Amino acid sequence: MKEELQYIDWFIDDLRVVKGASNHTLSNYSRDLERYREAMIAAGIHHWNDVTDAVLETYINSLTQGERPLAASSIARSLAAIRSFHRWLRKENLSSANPAQHVRAPKPGLRLPKALTVAETEELLMAARGEGARPIRDAALLELLYATGARVSEVVSLSVDDFYEYGDITVVRLLGKGGKERMVPVGKYAMEALDAYLTRSRPTLAAAGKGTHYLFLNLRGGVLSRQSVWEIIRKAAERAGITKEVSPHTLRHSFATHLLEGGASVREVQELLGHASVTTTQVYTRLSPQTLQEVYRSSHPRALT
């Protein structure tokens, strides 16, 4: 397949010169197409015209297997590169058919959200606490993430004026995807941590900058970045001795899971999370075997005791 290797080089040159593709895209496409070329050689394919839908489908499925299977996102990217390549071959009259036209990437398996247990969550929140402007801020940040199930982007964009009192309940206005607003209650522990931050920490942080309306500030008085939130949570998890991967989304998953385990309905959790579809929320209904066992024993009239 010497000439086909030349075709790949020509295709990459076309992406670079005509399409203006980035170096990152060019590198990924080159790697994906070289892997594809080698697999076709191993399968006894001697010309791109010999690649059929079935051959290509077999190749794509093989990427999910072996000692080092590719992630679903990598397989999708590889298929995109192959599709682009075969379209280019047809356009340049270098092949007579496009076998990639109807091939679809395999559906990724269901990935359940990784939630902390209630005990692990409490340990994480405790580990964020301490004296000084930074620990007081970090404690308020983590308490608010867990209390509301907010996305990290929603929390870092919060203003000090986004909290409202409704009787004895405080709610926060979160701006979600597509600019959709929702009002979410803020629990007692989170409000206590926020009050401490606003009175003992934020004024110190704000003095280091030129003043900003954002709620959570960095040490220079500017808005706290999403990357900083990740790092704050990572360090708190490390101090708490939590070995599993913990991120801002982990607290969001934990918020939803703990609500459902406590008796909240999927519809209620959907509203609190700001999901457009209840289908997205239903993944949290896949509770742990221990929880299902407890529900069964306490609810079924003929359960074993």
Report on this structure:
- The chain is mainly alpha-helical and 305 residues long.
- The chain is elongated, with a radius of gyration of 26 Å.
- It has a three-stranded antiparallel beta sheet.
- It contains 13 helices and three strands.
- The N and C termini lie far apart (68 Å).
- The chain has two domains: 90 residues, DNA polymerase, domain 1 (Orthogonal Bundle), CATH 1.10.150; 181 residues, Orthogonal Bundle (hpI Integrase, Chain A), CATH 1.10.443.10.
- The model has no long low-confidence stretch (mean pLDDT 85).
Topology of this structure?
Layout: H1 2-17, H2 23-42, H3 53-62, H4 72-91, H5 118-127, H6 133-148, H7 152-156, E1 163-166, E2 169-175, E3 181-186, H8 188-207, H9 226-240, H10 248-261, H11 266-273, H12 278-281, H13 289-299
Antiparallel strand pairs: 1-2, 2-3
Helix pairs in contact: 1-2, 2-4, 5-6, 5-9, 6-8, 6-10
Number of strands: 3
Spatial order of strands in the largest sheet: 1-2-3
Given the helix and strand composition, which structural class is it? mainly alpha
Seen as an oligomer or otherwise, the chain set is single chain
CATH architecture of the largest domain: Orthogonal Bundle
Largest sheet: 3 strands, antiparallel
Distance between the termini: 68 Å
- CATH topology-level name of the largest domain: hpI Integrase, Chain A
